[in-house]
Every structure is written in structure tokens, then in C-alpha cells.
What does this fold into?
Amino acid sequence: MGDLKNNIIDKIKTGEIDMKPKWYFMLKTALLITGVIIIGLLAIYLLSFVMFALHNSGILFAPSFGFRGIGLFITTSPWILILLVAVFLSILYILVKQYSFSYKQPFLYSMLGVIFLVIIGSFAVRETLHERIGVFTERNQIPGMSPFYKSAHEKLPEGITFGTIEEVLETGFIITDTDGETLTIITDSKTRQKPGSSYSDGDKILIYGDKTNEDTVNAYGIRKADEEFKRRHQIHNQDSQLIKPFNNRGDGQMRQFQNQ
It folds into this structure.
């Protein structure tokens, strides 16, 4: 013990060991905690937005409809945002590993713990946070944020149709989509849907399939829209109707000014 103490003292005297004041370690800890909080919140925000966008576009449910649905999911998912989430999770893991309690934990357990906490946080805020931010940014046209959230409310990806059943047919449905167009949905024995599903006039459904012409869709998958999906699209449509008169009035005033 004495030899170890003497060795340390000798290294301090020769400059091999650099002494740090107490405030240095306090500042380092404070910065580390701040970094963990900021990166953690960014990871939760981005992951929850990815889940919000996937649900809002109907892409989230596509893999349940077989290989075609999986292909649709792969080609239409926001992979840049998903990659950013992975980057933030990696940074968060590196920061968390600086704490002494995580030194003895295996890499897999530590990483799974970080991912688990971020996923739980994302699910906790997904439904309300982005819905409120989306409504606020669209109504107030917040620069940078408004286009970001508007993209999550734009038309559904090609291959997904959302509409209201007007008539149930033996071979499918007649629906009215979100643009007010009437479409004929063709189903057959290969069309995937939840076992025991039944449909009636007025039901709002998501159809996965390609248009064979302007008003016909061959469906390979069908599911009823859940309440969260219906509410979000209803809110977005209402806001669009509110914003349009102001935009149109502004355009009219501009044209009048130019004519003068």
C-alpha cells in the first residue's frame, strides 16, 4: 500500500499524473448529465415522430399483409429519420457508459436498456405530442416545422387508400376516398384482413392495393381504421378547410393589388 502511495506521489511530482480540481469533475458530470438529457429527448422526439408518421400514413400496418405489404413498408418508410434515431441511440449509449453503474453491464444489456427506455418514452408521447404540435404548426405556419409536420399529413403513399364505405358488394366495396372520389374496391380470397372482420356502410377503412384504372383498386389487404387514425385525418381535413379561405383571400388580395 505504501509503495503504491509513493508511486502515485512520484508520478504527480514528475507530471505523469495531472491533478484536477474538484470543480472540474463537477462540471464534467453536469455536462454529461445535460448531454444525456438532450440526446435522450431528441431520440424520443424523433422515434415518436417516426411512429406517428408511420401510423398516420398507414405504412405501420402494411407488413401484416404479406410480402407485398413488407415491400411497401420498406420502400415508403422514412429511413433517414430512422437512421438519425439509430445515431442518437448510439450517442446516448456512449454517454450512459460514462456512468460507473454501467461499467460492469454487458454491452447487449446496456444497449437494450437504453433502447427500451427510449421506446417507452416515445410511446408515452406519440399520440398527443405530435398531434398537438402538428395542429399548432399548420395553423400558424411555423417556418421549418410546418413543412415537417405537413409531410406526415400529405396524401397517403401510393398503394394505400383511405375512405368511407358507401356500399358493400359481393366482390368488394364502393367507397368515397379523402378527395371525395368514388372508387370500386375489388377483393378476393387472397385479400388479407383481420379474421372475423365484417364491414357495413359508413365504416372507414384502409385499403392496400394498386389502382387498375382511375376508379378501381385491387386490394391485397384491408383493415378498419382505428380511432386514432380517423381522428388525426379528421383534424387535418378540418384545419385544411380553415386555412384554405385565408390562403385564397390572400391570393385574391394580391391579384387585386397587381391589377391596380
In short: The beta strands are 160-169, 172-177, 182-186, 204-213, 216-224.
